[in-house]
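wait is this the right file?? whatever heres the structure
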């Protein structure tokens, strides 16, 4: 009798543990609700803007349900070393073993995986994931956000690359 009660208690405990683990394994692919840009005004308060301004720090806020977020603003790409050929054309001199240029730094998503390329780390706030960035010149830049859910380098790793289009910088 006592042995049977122990078996039943163990079976109930095992069912509870396994069912709670299964609930954690169901993870959706992250989505992005929107992106907002803020620039500090004269009083130091953040004010919402439609376009970033070159040379001014802009706060990029990503509204997402993701566990982790990385922003690739696309404003900087510096190749380590360049050479000029005899006909005056500039080409990359420092290349890696896969014939890709070695970068000093780059925040352009098309360089993802190359040496020296990385996105901006973000911090979680009430509004969403945010980072601060200063565009070095005016123009049109590709803004890409990489969002991740549940896990890193395992079977439950859910990642989305969202190309948010061109950002016009004044």
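ok assuming it is, sequence goes like this
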């Amino acid at each position: 009798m006592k042995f049977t009660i122990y078996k039943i208690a163990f079976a109930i405990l095992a069912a509870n543990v396994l069912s709670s683990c299964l609930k954690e394994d169901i993870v959706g692919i992250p989505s992005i609700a929107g992106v907002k840009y803020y620039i500090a005004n004269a009083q130091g308060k953040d004010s919402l803007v439609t376009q970033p301004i070159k040379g001014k720090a802009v706060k990029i806020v990503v509204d997402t349900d993701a566990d982790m977020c990385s922003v690739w603003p696309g404003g900087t790409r510096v190749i380590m070393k360049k050479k000029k050929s005899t006909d005056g054309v500039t080409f990359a001199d420092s290349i890696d073993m896969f014939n890709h240029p070695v970068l000093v730094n780059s925040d352009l998503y098309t360089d993802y995986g190359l040496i020296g390329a990385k996105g901006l780390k973000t911090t979680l706030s009430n509004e969403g994931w945010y980072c601060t960035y200063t565009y070095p010149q005016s123009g049109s830049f590709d803004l890409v956000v990489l969002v991740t859910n549940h896990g890193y380098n395992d079977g439950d790793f859910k990642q989305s690359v969202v190309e948010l289009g061109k950002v016009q910088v004044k």
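The first strand starts at residue 32 and ends at 40. so i think its the right one actually
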